[in-house]
Design brief:
The chain has twelve helices and 14 strands. Helices cover 40% and strands 20% of the residues. Strand 2 (20-23) and strand 3 form a beta hairpin. The longest helix is centred in the last third of the chain and has 20 residues, at 229-248. The protein is an alpha/beta fold and 307 residues long.
C-alpha cells in the first residue's frame, strides 16, 4: 500500500499539466505546493489547491524545473496568494528574473508560460522543509539540465518529476538543443537507484512503488536512444506536437503545420536528423500521421483532433 508522509497529497493531473504535490502540515505550519501545472489549467490548479488547503494560505511554491507544464500556474498562484515564497532551481533564477523566454524554453518549444517572480533557489545539498519534514534537494540533470529531485529519507519518498516515470522519463531536451545529455540521464537514474526509494512521485502518471521495474524500463529506453539518436529526435517531435494538441484540443491541419514549422526546436530536430528525407512541412505532416497511427490524434476533415 502506498504510504506518503502525513499532510502530503499528490494531485495527479495528466500530461498537459504535471502532477502537483501539496504539503499541509499538522498545526499552524506553512502549506506548500511543488509544481503548478500548465497555464491553461490555472483555474483548475487554483481550485485544487484551495480545496486541499481548506482555508490556509499557500506559503511556499517550489518548482522541480521550469518547463511550462510544471510552472505555468505559478503566476496565477502568486496573484491569488501575493505573499507566497517561490523557489526555482538555482540554474534558472537569472533567466526568471530577466524573463528570458529563450533560456526558459518557452519560445523554442512554442509553449506558453505567464511571467512569474522567484524569491529564492533550490540547489543540490539544500534542505527544504515540507509538511514539517526536511526534504533533501538533489541535482537531476538529463531531461532538463537544472532539474532537481526532492527526497525524504525517513519515509523514503522521492519526488522525481520527469527524471523517472513508471514507464520511462521525459524528453532529453539538451539533446535536441545540441548538447550531450544521455549520460546525465544515466547518472540521474543511478542516483535514484542509490537512494532506493520506497515510493516515487513522478511528474506525470500515478505514484508507484516498483522502482526497480521503472528503472529497468528507463534504462532500456535510454539505451535505445543512445544507439539510435534519431529515434529520440522523432519521439521529441511527437511529444512537442502532441503537447500542442493537448492544449488546443483540435486545430485545422494547416494551422498546426504552420505552427510546427515555426517552432525553433522542431526546426532544429528536422535539420539535425530528417532534412535529407523530406522538407519541413512534409516531415511535420508525417509526424502528425504517426500520432494518428498510434491513436494519439485523429483526423476529421481538415482538422486534427487530440485523442
Amino acid at each position: 500500500m502506498l504510504k506518503l508522509p502525513p499532510g502530503m497529497q499528490v494531485l495527479e493531473r495528466g500530461w498537459l499539466s504535471a502532477n502537483g504535490i501539496i504539503f499541509v502540515p499538522e498545526g499552524d505550519g506553512p502549506a506548500a505546493l511543488v509544481d503548478s501545472g500548465y497555464c491553461t489549467h490555472a483555474d483548475q490548479t487554483l481550485a485544487l489547491v484551495e480545496s486541499a488547503l481548506a482555508g490556509r494560505p499557500l506559503a511556499l511554491l517550489a518548482n522541480t524545473h521550469l518547463h511550462s507544464d510544471h510552472c505555468g500556474g505559478n503566476a496565477a498562484l502568486q496573484h491569488r496568494w501575493p505573499g507566497v515564497r517561490t523557489l526555482v532551481p538555482a540554474g534558472e533564477a537569472a533567466a526568471v528574473r530577466a524573463w528570458d523566454e529563450d533560456a526558459l524554453s518557452y519560445r523554442p518549444t512554442g509553449q506558453q508560460c505567464p511571467r512569474f517572480a522567484c524569491d529564492g533557489v533550490l540547489a543540490a545539498g539544500d534542505t527544504l522543509l515540507l509538511g514539517g519534514r526536511p526534504w533533501q534537494v538533489h541535482a537531476a540533470p538529463g531531461h532538463d539540465p537544472h532539474a532537481v529531485l526532492l527526497w525524504e529519507p525517513r519515509s523514503r519518498v522521492l519526488v522525481a518529476a520527469d527524471a523517472l516515470w513508471q514507464n520511462g522519463f521525459g524528453v532529453v531536451f539538451p539533446e535536441i538543443e545540441g548538447a550531450h545529455a544521455f549520460a546525465d540521464v544515466a547518472a540521474t537514474l543511478d542516483l535514484i537507484e542509490a537512494l532506493a526509494p520506497a515510493v516515487v512521485v513522478p511528474g506525470h502518471g500515478a505514484v508507484f512503488q516498483d522502482v526497480a521495474a521503472a528503472l529497468a524500463i528507463a534504462r532500456r529506453r535510454l539505451d535505445g536512444f543512445v544507439q539510435h539518436p534519431a529515434r529520440h529526435a522523432l519521439h521529441a517531435a511527437k511529444v512537442l506536437v502532441k503537447f500542442k494538441l493537448l492544449e488546443w484540443r483540435q486545430v485545422p491541419r494547416d494551422r498546426l503545420s504552420d505552427w510546427a514549422c515555426g517552432v525553433p526546436l522542431l526546426r532544429s530536430l528536422h535539420a539535425g536528423h530528417f532534412a535529407d528525407g523530406a522538407p519541413m512541412a512534409a516531415w511535420v505532416q508525417a509526424v502528425v500521421d504517426d500520432l494518428v497511427r498510434v491513436g494519439a490524434a485523429e483526423i476529421a476533415g481538415d482538422r486534427v483532433l487530440d485523442r
